Amino acid sequence: MDIARHGDGPLAAVRALLSQVHPVFMLPPLSASLFGALLAAQRSVGFAAGFDPALAALHVLAAFFALYTAHVTDGYVDFYVREEDDDHPLTLAGCRLARAGASVAFFACLLAVGWAVDAVAAALTLPGWLIGYHHAPTLDTNPVTATVGYPTGIAVALVGGYYVQATALSATVVALAGVFLVVLSGIKVIDDAQDYDYDRSIDKRTVAVVVGPELAYRAAYALMATGMVAVVALAVGIDGIPPTAALAPVVFGSVALVATRAGPELATMLLIRGSYLFLAVLLATVWFRPLG
Q1: pLDDT tops 70 at residue 75
Q2: What is the residue extent of each domain of the chain?
Q3: Cα–Cα distance, 241 to 228 (Å, whole number)
Q4: What is residue 46's predicted lDDT score, i.e. its pLDDT?
Q5: Do residues 271 and 241 make contact, with C-beta atoms less than 8 angstroms apart?
Q6: Cα 244 versus chain centre, distance
Q7: Is 198 left (phi over 0), alpha (psi -120 to 50) or beta?
Q8: Helix or strand (DSSP H, E) at 202
Q9: 21-169: CATH topology
Q10: Residue 109: is its pLDDT beyond 90?
Q11: How far, in Å, CA of 71 to CA of 65, rounded?
Q12: Residue among 20, 6, 11, 198 nearest 87 (CA)
């Protein structure tokens, strides 16, 4: 069975399969899972007592296979079903094999999470795969679900990573998941605006197509600003989030300010990398707790 559309042999097949690993989009959900695990460790006397690296790695691995399923499905739908893309590295059979393999690996991780923790942990892990599998064929045809699908996956990864360690949820992790959902939804609106002309030509109903680019930009930055204000409020008002976490909105806000003067493509690049810095600062403040 041929897996790669370009080239022959095992090496070409491996290259085609690895092409569906997109670090830019995989890093935030995987980091969110780890961040949730570290946040849960705050419930214990110290990280050594409260952090289980094996459980954290298991949940991160489940999130990886959910994302891989999403990327393969997205490429399959865009190239073979909708014929929107000009090229794709995987054959039709390769897409089916890769999606099936990633799904089997995900459900193996899911069963392991359920066995090692409990059924609730498995239930909080499952939505990542459901969102990934259904995003391209269904969710991205509606302006709301097209916008919040990926951010919801990140929020779920955060909550799941937390629960796997703590076997409980807290107001802190739920609030932070809400922040990520709001902020990343704003970034997604800007990202979709890059393809405004093309999406409009094929009647794809993104936020920018429905309300127009200018209003979409305003709504996007309003969402991001709301999320930043919420982080500051959490840092000064909720146990478990150190006050120094308020530095994260300062870092992201500086990047967002530059992005407001850029076009959609550059703004998206800046905002995505700004979200990496935002998450990195949160991770650092939770791990080291300076002044905490």
Answers
A1: yes
A2: 21-169, 172-292
A3: 14
A4: 45
A5: no
A6: 24
A7: alpha
A8: none
A9: Tetracycline Repressor; domain 2 (1.10.357)
A10: yes
A11: 10
A12: 6
pLDDT confidence of residue 48: 45
Place of tokens 């990195």: 280
**What span, in angstroms and rounded, lies between the C-alpha atoms of 74 and 66?**
12
Residue 77 is classified by DSSP as I
Task: Determine the Cα–Cα distance for residues 268 and 248; give it in Å rounded to an integer.
Answer: 19
- The tokens describing 290, both together, are 């300076």
Euclidean distance between CA atoms 39 and 47, whole angstroms: 10
Q: pLDDT tens for residues 158-195?
A: 999 999 999 999 888 898 899 889 999 999 999 888 88
- Please report which helix (H) or strand (E) contains residue 210, including its range: helix 207-211
What type of residue is 180? F
3-class DSSP assignment, residue 222: helix
Report residue 154: phi and psi, to 5°.
Answer: -70, -40
Contacts of 270 (CB under 8 A, 6+ apart): 255, 256, 258, 259, 262
| Tokens found for residue 218 | 């305003």
**Residue 6: HSE in the Cβ half-sphere, 13 Å Cα cutoff:** 7
For the chain, what is the radius of gyration of the CA atoms? 20
Place of tokens 């269904």: 138
